[in-house]
Amino acid sequence: MGKIQVEDCEIEGLKIITPNVIGDARGYFVETYNARDMKEAGIDRVFVQDNQSASKRGVIRGLHFQINHPQAKLVRVIKGEVFDVAVDLRKGSATYGKWKGVLLSAENHKQFYIPEGFAHGFLVVSDYAEFCYKCTDFYHPGDEGGIMYNDPEVGVEWPIADDMELVFSERDTKWGSILDLNK
Known about the structure:
By secondary structure, the chain is mainly beta. The protein is about 5% helix and about 40% strand. The strands form three sheets. A six-stranded antiparallel beta sheet has the order 1-2-10-7-12-5, with no helix packed on it.
């Protein structure tokens, strides 16, 4: 494939994308999104909203999803490093409840494509990180769902350092288990 390398994951639909980075004495240039290349990679989506967040070390955002307006996301880090996680919530999926984690950083330029039907979250492992994501649907207040980051039914293996103080939003401390979604 031309400008990007695409790695399919063991969970169908998830893709790790590595763009072509051109570097020289001035720095680097990278094309972060090209609809033609994405279509060739099997990601033929229209993204309608871009978001960016900044977080300090130890922040966990997630695991979130929208209930009635699910979003596919294309995520990347422009400063720092995060451990990004997607959890399969697609009913009837052979990998329902399974998770995939990817280390995304400003240095590796990797992107993670997460289709609709997944919970998504990340842990900041560097001192500070800026995180960008493209979404296929708009944010709908009141349509939020989530599962707790440490749900034993999912078993995400977060790379939490011994000296890391975890930081959550109040909302993220109140999510339940994946088992609660099926009630």
